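Reviewers of the previous submission asked for a worked example of the structure-prediction workflow described in the proposal, so we include one complete record here. The input consisted solely of the amino acid sequence. No template or homolog information was supplied to the procedure at any stage.
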Amino acid sequence: MNSDVWNIVRSNLQETIGRDAFQNWIDPLVFEGCKGGVVRLSAPTSFIGNWVSQHYGERIRTIMCEAGTDVHRLTFGVAGMKTGNAASKEARTKAAPEPSQAEADLPSSPLDSRFRFDSFVVGKPNELAHAAARRVSESGEVTFNPLFLYGGVGLGKTHLMHAIAWEIRETRPEARVLYLSAEQFMYRFVQALRFKDMHGFKELFRSVDVLMVDDVQFIAGKDSTQDEFFHTFNALIDQNKQIVISADRAPGEISGLEERIKSRLQWGLVVDLHPTDYELRLGILLSKLETQRSLNPGIQIDEGVLEFLAHRISSNVRVLEGALTRLFAFASLVGREIDLDMTQECLADILRASERKVTIEEIIRKVADHYNLRMTDMLSPRRARSVARPRQVAMFLSKTLTSKSLPEIGRRFGGRDHTTVIHAVRKVEELRVTDSQINEDVELLRRMLEA
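From that input alone, the workflow returned the following structure tokens.
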């Protein structure tokens, strides 16, 4: 068997598993030879070799057999551990050319080509996050370390993360950029433990120039993963490497996250992507309208439709963009122009689902702001009346404005028991009768939350 068979395998996998998976896992492999039905391949790290063996090993063996080579099994070594012979050097040149970017052998998650800075619509709710992301991507110097972006679903965190990675890869191709979700970080950590390859894991994550971890709240409560994340974080900070993190909440508000990690995450710049306002939503729709018109020339859209959507769909930018896409698809299929009647008919389910829904996190934030407290105070065990009373008001509003169960509400308030919530609700109900200030506060907060 020679390197020609390996080239057949590469060609087959490139077509069947997709470009990103191919570049992440197959392209870094080097064919070292075959003897006695055993194929030898080398990988940049043992972690990558183990991953390929587990997920693609049988497929690779099948392709080789179909190409006329009797292969019983595959073995994976680590590149550089042994000196290759002339044949393996030839295979290295033909089958696995040196990557053009320094991070080509890093198992990063695929980047979405739509998520770049030029497609990110900037408004007051996200202008600081956008500016900070730009600074990190454009500067070779470590600026804010870490940059921590947080906000609700569909507000642009992942878009900015991808945009940073794209910008760095294009302007500084020598930089080793590793982007992945916290869930993937945990999975790779578990795999490294399973295959007894912690050395390879540490080598991979601590040799990058930029580490980007999305949805870090996922590791909350997972002690071993948090411990390794903590040491990885410190190692990169000590090397003056850039770290970018995103989450759905501020570091101090992530229940189950170790205090030492919360402290580290607050070292740099923590930026909140606020819920979109009407002007930003309209700007996003106007930006997407140009794309839809280029894809669907000739379709007319009435004045007022975009304004209607910007008013009615306020919680999630992805839903907003999806609504516009559906309108143009529907109009193209039925041959109608897009007016308000058609919009309400076509988007009836989205409009119903987008009716105002108050979340417990929003209630806690509003109540904390109203009483000039921090959200961490609301979730803390402090029992001083200046904290306990606002906490009880927030629990009361959570019970009356959401459909969450008492145990769920208790968990959201720092892991309290449901009986604490029952007591809070009864106490506020009593106080509303006897204390006009409490009653006024509750009504004001209710109006603000339901607006």
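The mean pLDDT is 84. We consider this example representative of the routine output the project will generate in years two and three.
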